[in-house]
Design a protein that fits this description.
481 residues; alpha/beta; Aldehyde Dehydrogenase, Chain A, domain 2; 2 domains; seven-stranded mixed beta sheet; six-stranded mixed beta sheet; binds nicotinamide-adenine-dinucleotide
């Protein structure tokens, strides 16, 4: 029987007014397993009305009271973590082990972190001089919109919702239409833990329609968006009439720079992860590997060897390390770029073909992890975000050249530097154009630190105080002494 996902408005699951639904696919089998509501303006307005009604009571609660709801949500996700990991794996095609190890634990952590971290946030501060006394308040904005992508569904959905709620906003949230299942399970959890009606409303549908209606709604004060750069630019353009606050987390073309003097074994192990975790579908994945020429040939051989050992297969199998591509559209896009490698005279060292598995996954969307050399940085493959299991190798002779190649892109999300020379790493990080730079590691996150990109990768920063500031408005109250 098909799973049906409805909207969650004012504490209840409701059908879309139009009764229209979109197909939901299991990428590992290529088959439809459910339907998700395709919302119209009526549904969006209903959600916004419910959020507006819930705002006064929710915003008047203390931070500890709101935090206690967030902690209850975190605890319930923990209780249901195994089944949530299964749902996440089915929606995205990612290996169940990754959903268990990365996606669900991080969703729990997001709620827990903002519940306690925000207790020490400065909602009130003071500035005094000889003649006046100023009280600076940070207050919630009202109703805010959170729009998230398909690659890390509950992880990124909760990363936005938790800070928006903790500071007293009520929320209209839209998961990706490709992977909405765990968001609807989150709605069930909200009912179970007694979150007041209307505080969190989850609406479903396509980006160009439902997402756009959220962006253009005049009662929504801010949009926190994670997704592609082209979409982020559209949101920037479409929200100007209502002068919304915007936080845009967008695409990347992240370099990993490898110097001869690095810890080679640690680097090799980590570059394997940073290239192919979640089939390369993490915005922080390294897609351009830039290697000092003295170790280029050795790296090339060793890297292809470790990549070829990745266990590719059914995401349900516990030992699978590399699963399916999350949608047919993404599968076609990656194959298109593999064709471009050939047209641009690049050399495919490993992979480069769709994979035909047998049994349950015979019609699934699988592509071999692919390693390419011989393309210079101006090629389309090195300039455009592919967001899949395709990495390129380039060599450099000097530090300056490595930095030049790394920065030669419109994106600026993350970068990884591999060297044991501290002075060198300090010089390189100073010149790299990226919001997040990892030295001798990857994906290590302290949730208090700023998260986001520069150039075409982002506007604003999430995490820690940054996101709490984003979701609040300042008010200065001045009195004369
Ligand atoms: P996408 O831009 O197609 O969609 C993201 C979300 O925006 C979805 O919910 C979609 O329905 C919605 N949307 C689409 N068009 C819209 C519109 N006109 N108005 C309002 N909402 C709209 O992105 P995607 O394909 O789901 O995700 C992949 C992209 O996300 C990649 O580019 C990846 O780099 C990026 N990403 C970035 C980060 C980050 O933190 N910087 C994290 C994860 C993914």
């Amino acid at each position: 029987m098909l799973e049906i996902i409805n909207n969650f408005i004012n504490g209840k699951f409701v059908k879309p007014r139009s009764n229209q639904y979109l197909d939901l696919f299991d990428p590992a089998t290529g088959s439809v397993y459910g339907k998700v509501a395709d919302s119209s303006i009526y549904d969006i307005n209903q959600a916004v009305d419910s959020a507006k009604k819930a705002f006064p009571l929710w915003s008047e609660k203390t931070i500890e009271e709101r935090g206690s709801y967030l902690k209850k949500i975190a605890n319930e996700i923990q209780v249901q973590s195994n089944i949530l990991a299964e749902y996440e794996s089915r929606d995205t095609g990612k290996p169940i082990s990754i959903a268990r190890k990365i996606d669900i634990p991080r969703a729990i952590e997001n709620f827990k972190f903002f519940a306690s971290y925000s207790e020490n946030f400065d909602f009130t501060s003071y500035i005094e001089n000889d003649s006046s006394f100023n009280t600076i308040l940070r207050q919630p904005l009202g109703v805010v919109g959170c729009i998230s992508p398909w690659n890390l569904p509950l992880y990124l959905f909760s990363w936005k919702i938790a800070p928006a709620l903790i500071v007293g906003n009520t929320v209209i949230a839209k998961p990706s239409e490709i992977t909405p299942f765990t968001a609807s399970k989150l709605a069930e959890i909200c009912i179970e833990i007694g979150l007041p009606n209307g505080v969190l409303n989850i609406v479903n549908g396509t980006g160009k329609d439902s997402g756009d209606m959220i962006v253009k709604n005049k009662d929504i004060k801010a949009i926190s968006f994670t997704g592609g750069t082209a979409t982020g630019k559209l949101i920037y353009q479409n929200s100007f009439q209502s002068l919304k606050k915007l936080s845009l987390e967008m695409g990347g073309k992240n370099p990993a720079i490898i110097f001869e003097d690095c810890d080679y074994d640690l680097m090799l192990k980590t570059i394997l992860r940073s290239s192919f975790t979640n089939q390369g579908q993490i915005c922080l994945c390294s897609s351009r590997i830039i290697i000092e020429n003295s170790i280029f040939e050795k790296f090339k051989m060793d890297f292809c060897e470790v990549v070829s050992q990745l266990k590719i297969g059914d995401p349900n199998e516990l030992d699978t390390e590399f699963g399916a591509i999350s949608s047919k559209k993404q599968f076609d896009k990656i194959n298109y770029f593999i064709d471009i490698v050939n047209k641009e005279n690049g050399k495919i060292l490993l992979g480069g073909k769709p994979i035909k598995l047998s049994g349950r996954c015979k019609d699934g969307w699988f592509i071999e992890p692919t390693v390419v050399e011989g393309l210079d940085n101006t090629s389309r493959v090195n300039q455009e975000e592919i967001f899949g299991p395709l990495v390129t190798l380039q060599s450099f002779k000097t530090e300056k050249e490595a930095i030049q190649i790394a920065n030669d892109t419109d994106y600026g999300l993350s970068a990884t530097i591999w060297t044991n020379n501290i002075e060198r790493s300090e010089r390189v990080v100073a010149d790299i154009e990226a919001g997040i730079i990892w030295v001798n590691c990857w994906m290590v996150r302290d949730l208090r630190t700023p998260f986001g990109g520069m150039k075409n990768s982002g506007l604003g920063r999430e995490g820690g105080d940054n996101v709490l500031r984003f979701f609040t408005e300042q008010k200065n109250i001045c009195s004369v002494k």
